Amino acid sequence: MNPTELTDLVERLRASTLRLDLRSAGVDARTVVGALYSNRSLIYGVDGWKAVQAASSYYNQARDIQSRLGLMRLVDVAELDLPRDCRIEHFVSFSNVALDALDIGLAIEKATRALQLCDPADAEWRVEAMCVLSACHEVAGQPIEAASLAREAISVALAAGGSVSQINLGEAWAMLGDALTAQKDFEQAKSAYGASQQCFREANSGGDNPHYLLGQINLANLAILTGNLLDAEQYLQSMRKADLGSYQHASVLRMSLAECEALLGVAKSNDAMNRSRFEVANRRSDLESPANSRSQLVTYCMLLERLGDRENMHRANSRLADVRTEAYRRLVALLNPLHQEFPHLSGQSDQMVEMLNRLASTAELRDDITGKHCSRVGRAARLLAMATNCGDARLLDSIEIAGRLHDIGKIGVPDAILSKRDRLSADEFELMKTHTTRGASLLEGSKISALAYAYEVALSHHERWDGGGYPRGLAKESIPLSARIVAIADVFDAMTHSRPYRLSISAKTTLEYISGAAGTHFDPHLARKFVEVVGHDGEASQLV
Predict the structure, then answer these.
(1) Which residue in 67, 139, 326, 471 has its CB near the most CB atoms, within 10 A?
(2) What SS3 class is residue 163?
């Protein structure tokens, strides 16, 4: 399309004389005008940032989050000659839109790029980008990492003082409250939410701004979870009385209120009608703000657990697991285009390494209270691969990353099963076993060597040398070497650390088990080498 044709299209859209199928996706003429105007700057050479800002005024008028995200993608700020602070602002805004749409990979990428551009003096943007990253980890089911990032954001904001707005500081406190709620640390979460509300009051003395009102929703949810239903009613009163019509995100506030009202109904009377009210409100909210909808779904799952409604809790947890699986799928998909830019996992591919590390860190999964099981398995796998002369440093890096990602499929296993304190039933164990195929489906088809090994490992680390493992019943050398290595590292770490249903076993006893299982459970050569290296070279203390 040449400049004249583009100008004509823009003017026709402005005049609403052109009908587009985009309307069915919730995009009206104004949003298209805004997006085209931003790209128009590339053709006419006008001030690129003014064009981006002009287009941005249209994004929020799109009727659903996917439309807003699609329009945001049309502005390739990398091709515009913009000042550093404008680039940071764009990346932070983009990361927030991606997070709202639950495109976790994109949100992490844009927030990370914003942080890479920030100077120490850019405290405001650093805080906002850290809040996005914190929220990404909370969405991925990693509240420990989310809380750590939220605390770091609060620390940066407090150190910067007046150069960080109370709104941003309040959002950081709110993120900490979300992470602590997910950890079921309800007293500390209440304190964090209280600090968040105080920040929002100071930012707007009227106390009736959207941030404050969403904070009331947080406090109401927390009161419902702790059984303080009268407190929940009081928190919701401010929402019921507020005039939401003037707010940019009024529809999100209304949906949040509807979901919270339905949750309160479930807490008062856990019957089919109230659960149905929540399901309807949650699905409607998902069109407007998937991130908000997922947050309420987490609360719903915890409420059903408190009420002892195991059947509906399992169903809700399965939905939550599917949401997390899709979030990870988008994160993995983001790595493939990065591979084209950084084909080698080496010193110059910092962004690629950063994304792989973030993917691995979100796989520090929820059945390990310290969140370090996957990291330790990665280190132990690297040690064994090195002892057996498996390859050069790049291959060892790939095997370590594959070890860290071996349990990534557990994000598709319901929370209630992962956190169960007793041994799993036969049916629950069958569901747990699906983490191998789920993990493989997330990583399949990647051209990145580390993820190609991770695919092998995710799928086959529970296969046995004698053919008695799962999911495919492979035996001996038909099991990929990388999976045979990680299988030993995984069992060693699992046995030497406590689980919800049993205490840890000493490294000496664990090595005796591995030695005795050589030729049945484990590759005999690898098992002997692991026992030799860990047992005689003093490595056990570093792995436990």
Answers:
(1) 139
(2) helix
| Cα end-to-end span (Å), the chain | 62
What is the C-alpha to C-alpha distance for residues 304 and 205, in angstroms, rounded to an integer? 37
Phi-psi region of 161 (alpha: psi -120 to 50; beta: other; left: phi over 0): left
Under 8 Å between Cβ of 123 and 163: yes
- CA-CA distance, 492 to 345, in Å (whole number)? 28
User: What tokens appear for 213 in the block?
Assistant: 């009102």
pLDDT tens digits for 322-367? 888 887 787 777 776 655 554 554 444 555 666 666 666 665 545 4
Say which amino acid occupies 477: E
Helices (H), 140-271: 143-160, 166-182, 186-203, 210-225, 229-241, 250-268
Chain centroid to CA 264: 27
For residue 429, count other CB atoms closer than 10 A to its CB. Answer: 11
337 Cβ partners below 8 Å, 6+ apart? none
CA-based radius of gyration for the chain: 25
Residues 181, 169: contact at Cβ < 8 Å? Answer: no
**Counting every residue, how long is the chain?**
544
- pTM (2 decimals)? 0.74
